[in-house]
């Protein structure tokens, strides 16, 4: 049977894990109905949070900007946005050198694309 000290240590460890996840993936706790996914409300905040430290600003990594609807559409249309986010073979896994986006967050981006990838 687990004693109180090791239980406490376990709680500390898991508490720490959840703190980090909440910081890294603030959207993941809130998987709202996917039909309501919009560019400004869902997609851009996720890109800003996970991608645009590299793909934003005046000189984005690899010349790939992901900070406006027009810019993002190029990578929606050529398949590399979802290919990279899904870690699909043939694409560079994104976010680079970081954890995969949560399944819920990936679904939000996919739902926005499935609904026509509108500038909404
Ligand atoms: C740490 C910096 C960094 C982060 C964070 C990052 N990228 Fe990238 N991204 C790069 C670099 C550098 C490349 C050029 C290819 C390579 O080096 O892997 C790239 C390439 C890409 C490509 C082209 C991939 C291909 O195979 O054609 C896409 C699309 C992309 N990134 C999207 C994203 C998305 C979406 C996110 C967030 C989920 C993201 N990136 C996060 C640095 C980053």
Notes on the structure:
This protein is mostly helical. The chain has one domain (35-120). The chain is 53% helix and 0% strand. The protein has six helices and no strands. The protein has helices at 4-24, 39-50, 52-55, 69-77, 80-85, 103-114. The protein is globular, with a radius of gyration of 17 Å. The model is unreliable at 7-28 (pLDDT under 50). The structure holds heme C. The site of heme C has 22 residues, from helix 3 and helix 5. The site of heme C (HEC) has 22 residues, from helix 3 and helix 5.
> Which regions have little confidence, pLDDT < 50, spanning 5+ residues?
7-28
Radius of gyration, in angstroms, nearest whole number: 17 Å
* DSSP strand content: under 5%
> What's the end-to-end separation, in Å?
55 Å
Q: Biggest sheet, open or closed, and with what strands and sense?
A: none
Structural class: mainly alpha
* Distinct small-molecule ligands in the complex: heme C
H-E string? HHHHHH
| Number of discrete helical segments | 6
Detail the topology: elements first, then pairings:
Elements lengths: L3 H21 L14 H12 L1 H4 L13 H9 L2 H6 L17 H12 L6
Helix pairs in contact: 2-6
Bound molecules: heme C.
Heme C (HEC) binds next to helix 3 and helix 5.
């Amino acid at each position: 049977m687990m004693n109180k000290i090791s239980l406490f240590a376990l709680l500390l460890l898991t508490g720490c894990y959840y703190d980090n996840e909440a910081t890294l993936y603030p959207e993941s706790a809130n998987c709202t109905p996917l039909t309501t996914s919009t560019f400004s409300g869902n997609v851009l905040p996720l890109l800003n949070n996970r991608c645009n430290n590299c793909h934003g600003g005046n000189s984005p990594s690899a010349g790939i900007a992901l900070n406006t609807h027009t810019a993002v559409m190029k990578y929606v249309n050529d398949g590399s946005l979802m290919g990279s986010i899904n870690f699909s073979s043939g694409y560079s896994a994104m976010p680079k050198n970081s954890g995969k986006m949560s399944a819920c967050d990936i679904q939000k981006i996919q739902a926005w694309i499935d609904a026509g990838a509108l500038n909404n």
